[in-house]
Design brief:
Elements lengths: L1 H29 L2 E4 L6 E4 L2 H5 L1 H47 L6 E4 L2 E6 L5 H4 L3 E2 L2 H7 L8 E5 L2 E7 L5 E8 L6 H9 L9 E6 L3 E7 L23 H19 L15 E3 L5 E3 L10 H7 L19 H17 L15 H6 L17 H14 L9 H33 L4
Parallel strand pairs: 5-9
Antiparallel strand pairs: 1-2, 3-4, 6-7, 7-8, 8-10, 9-10, 11-12
Catalytic activity: L-seryl-[protein] + ATP = O-phospho-L-seryl-[protein] + ADP + H(+); L-threonyl-[protein] + ATP = O-phospho-L-threonyl-[protein] + ADP + H(+)
GO cellular component, one term: plasma membrane
Enzyme class: transferase
């Protein structure tokens, strides 16, 4: 309404300027008389006696009138340009309004490769915030038509593809085909509300009659396991203790945030491969909110392979609680401190794993990564004790809030150690300046 009122005002101003211009030009023509010579009938212009007396003054007035008219014309041109810009903005506003109105739940959209129309669900911006309903054509273009060369992993939801959206952002696209869940959209709605620095952000989603896709932010350093052990599950020593504590603290804060929601969100699928690292090695928890997205097919497929992050005290999925997530976090801590995969090829017996060995061993140091320096091992023992407490019987396990506090204390205690190292490196750097 304000925009329309402004346009009306500008139009009125333009009309007043036009009236003024007409009056000015009319005065120019009032003193001019046309006389036709009787001999040759050639039109001539004559001036009255009074007009001839004011000839000099009239010429000045005409010049002033012409200048005034030119100025008025310039003002009108400027006003017309302003009106044109306002109209363009108004039309753009109307177009955006109509576009947003087109995403109502009952609208039919085209589903890419499927030559049919299907109704899709959408939610208000209050719930979905920046989460986008993407088209299948966008996702196919982003992944090279889901090329195998773009597969970067596989989880319980399906294959994970690396993709490049039209806006230039890299994304990780999880794709489930055929074995779909009817609770997909409600779960997406719930996940879309979660925003935390240590939680992987959901960017978009897509669903049709035979596939469901989740689009997350892409984290270039992959999962923590890539930086702990090799293909045989043995330590590779890429991370110092300071970085391991930072990763553990970030992951614990992510889980603690999920548990602090109302109602609490249980991860139910926490493991080392679900802790991802960005370009600064900031840890972020992924695959959260999958409790209802996991179908019976997922559960049946997992029975053939032992999930060592799964709490053995958990009998029924309906009884899952925060303490079961704590158990999974304890297994993650054991891997993080030892550098071993929980079940690696170095195990002498098929049913052996680090959890069993660490719980019943009297020598804790043999489960601390040998690549850590001697001065780091004191804090590593504290983290190992915390890990063993997490995998203890359910009544003795700490809460995620308590785990965050303990890891923060460990981080503070080891900070002077690394500040001394940085100072030594700084002295060497300054000394090297002398030889330039």
């Amino acid at each position: 309404m304000q925009l329309l009122l402004r346009i009306r005002l500008l139009l009125l101003i333009m009309i007043q300027m036009l009236v003024y211009l007409n009056k000015s030009t009319g005065k120019l023509s009032c003193g001019v008389k046309e006389k036709i010579d009787s001999n040759n009938e050639i039109p001539t212009l004559t001036l009255s006696i009074k007009e001839s007396q004011e000839k000099k003054q009239g010429g000045g007035r005409r010049v002033a009138a012409v200048v005034g008219g030119a100025g008025a014309a310039l003002v009108i041109i400027v006003i017309v340009v302003i009106i044109y810009i306002c109209l363009r903005r108004y039309r753009r506003f109307k177009r955006q309004t109509s576009d947003s109105a087109s995403s109502v739940p009952s609208q039919a959209i085209e589903m890419g490769r499927i030559n049919s129309l299907q109704y899709v669900n959408a939610f208000s911006p209050h719930y979905m915030q920046n989460t986008r309903l993407l088209t299948i054509s966008e996702l196919e273009q982003a992944t090279g038509n889901f090329s195998q060369s773009n597969i970067i992993g596989e989880g319980k939801f399906g294959f994970v593809y690396k993709g490049l959206l039209e806006d230039g952002s890299f994304v990780a696209i999880k794709r489930r085909m055929f074995a779909l869940t009817r609770d997909f959209i409600p779960e997406v709605k719930q996940i879309a509300q979660i925003h935390h620095i240590h939680i992987v952000k959901l960017i978009g989603y897509y669903e049709d009659s035979y596939q469901q896709l989740l689009v997350y932010e892409y984290l270039p350093n992959g999962n923590v396991g890539n930086h702990l052990y090799d293909n045989e599950g043995l330590p590779i020593g890429k991370l110092d203790l300071q970085r391991r504590v930072s990763i553990a603290l970030g992951a614990s804060k992510g889980l603690d945030h999920l548990h602090g929601l109302v109602p609490p969100m249980l991860h139910t699928n926490f493991s080392t491969i679900n802790v991802l690292l960005d370009e600064n090695f900031t840890a972020k928890v992924s695959d959260y909110g999958f409790c209802k997205l996991q179908t019976k097919v997922d559960q049946a497929g997992s029975s053939s392979n032992v999930d060592y992050f799964h709490d053995p005290e958990l009998r029924l999925s309906e009884n899952y609680s925060e303490q079961n997530d704590v158990y999974s976090f304890g297994v993650f801590l054991l891997e993080l401190i030892s550098g071993f995969e929980v079940h690696n090829r170095n195990m002498s017996q098929p049913d052996e794993n680090i959890i069993f060995q660490a719980k019943y061993s009297s020598v804790m140091d043999k489960f601390i990564d040998i690549t850590l320096r001697e001065e780091e091992r004191v804090a590593a023992r504290r983290m190992m004790k915390l890990a063993l407490l997490c995998v203890d019987v359910i009544l003795r396990r700490p809460s995620m809030a308590h785990i965050v506090q303990e890891l923060e204390r460990i981080q503070r205690d080891i900070a002077p150690l690394y500040s001394e190292i940085n100072e030594e490196i700084g002295v060497v750097t300054l000394g090297s300046e002398l030889f330039k």
